[in-house]
Amino acid sequence: MASRASEVQLTTLHSSHDEEATTLTATSSNDLHPTTPRRQLVVLITSFLTICITVGLNQSYGVFQSYYTSSSQTMLPVSTSSSALTAFIGTLGSGLTWSGSLFINPILARLNMKGTKALCLAGVLCMSLGLGLASLCSQIWQLLLTQGLLYGIGSSLLYFPILSVAPEYFNAHRGSAMGFILSGSGMGGLIFSPLIRALLSAIGPRWTLRALALLVLVVSLPIASMAAPSRFVGRRPTRIDIKLAMKPSFLFSVGAGFLQAGGNGLPLTFLAEYSVVLGYSAGFGATLLAVSNGVNSVSRIMSGFAGDRFGRQNTLILTGVLCVISVLGFWLGSVSGGNKVLWIVFVMLYGVTGGGYNALFPTTVAEVFGLQAYASVNGFIYFVRGLGTMFGSPVGGKILGESKLVNYRNVVLFDAALLGGAMFCVIGVRCWDAVDKRTWKWKA
Which of 37, 142, 365, 442 has the most other CB atoms within 10 Å of its CB? Predict the structure, then answer.
């Protein structure tokens, strides 16, 4: 019996990728509670809707960004509505959505089913309250505390209890399942971007925020009540083992998470505002943001299928390369000549490539570090991604200064540097993962 245990352990540490996948499946079947197709469907739908209402709203903040910095806005003093400060409102909310993982995952490990649902309920109330209180604000610092801080805390409390267990419910088609789930961000952006723009024009910013607060409450309360438990029989590890933390593959993953989060959110934050600078209307800018999110949604699903077919890490690297090409080739070209056609092409292409990256990153974490370590590793990386999100757009806004076409050149170069760094980090993960497993597989 001891000999067999040693053999399994040795296989897990040193076997080829195919043998490791087999061992992981066998281990998972012993360590996980059984599930049913109905439970998988519930997890699929609730996770999709959670992404839609949290990340979808985050990715639609560019419409508020465009409004808060416009001359027609009626909510803030004109002298205080700078691009950097208003960008930080949205990135604070987005960043906290991710970075809350470092604190929420350890709490989740100690909660029973009722406690998990109560945590989700608290998140829903914080999100709704943050948006509702934002409608009463008249200064940027007040919006930072409400639409940024309070909303972001609530978003994280809803997001992680539901999304941290989702990969546990899928095995062979995990890439496809997570691709569908994460496509909710693009679908949410597709819905919320034109909706927010229409509401701002029809009822003004304060009632728009109140309407969103009510919408969050109505949609999210049923989600919170159906939060699924972890399938692990014992308590999942929530702390990073020091030996794991010193691995190059882990360090490269952390670097990729920070740089990609900073670079990925920057175009979305300024998309509507930049469209106005090019000569489009604010309404068309919001439409472009919605189109980008819609393409992003489809891309996440297709990237999940491609990852299952050709290797998740391979597909992740490809999307990273294409992200850099789209920024340097099309957005920079649009800035250089004020070319509207190149801008439209960029919006479409970046929606495809950015969506693929975001869909595949969580699945590669499970693949590289194992399902048992997924919650701890993914939680830490998402904490770092939150920091990256809070870094990218505010720094981009500071670089931009006044919203003029010529000033966007340095913003684009900054974005390309972030995404280029993320691309090299992902390549590093691919190489060191092969070193750790002592084998190279073309499909990985």
Answer: 365
